[in-house]
Amino acid sequence: MSITIAAFSGSLRKDSYNTKLIKAFEQLAPEGVTIETIDIGKLPLLNQDLETDLPQSVKDLHNSIDNADAILLATPEYNRSYSPILKNALDWGSRPQGQNRWNKKPAAVTGCTPSVLGTFGAQNHLRQVLTYLNMYTLQQPEFYLGSVADKFNDKGELTDEQTKKKIIQFWATFIEWINKIK
Description:
Strands 2-1-3-4-5 form a 5-stranded parallel sheet, sandwiched between helices. The protein has 5 helices and 5 strands, in the order βαβαβαβαβα. By secondary structure, the chain is of the alpha/beta class.
């Protein structure tokens, strides 16, 4: 089994918990799964004027999506929605019009936040957009990680054993989902 996952963190912060979560998913990935974390911080804001001569960062995004077997999204929650940087990446991945690179890609949504609620609101909103993009989004299990500051050490490593078990279980279902779709 060889599966390539394009992973996206919806946070640009240097010590982003969602980026740390992506790294934890990478460390706990099953054998044969490769994670490519995509830097979306260099994408320009969506502007149709740029579509006639796409910036290199957009071309790189398109290539990463095209080469991925599936997509893993980790979103923070801002005002009960997902981050604008993630929205921008999703929009560029569907542009120019008629060239939706997300089409029929298996996807999974995760997210974490320092608050107790996790990222329920953000993930719910994000799933609506993924449906429009015609992505095959894993619905269960849901993955909301709250009180995240207590789950990583100073080096950014996941130390919470319960969360590690949850990630391993999540992987098992996600891999089964990817294989079913592909």
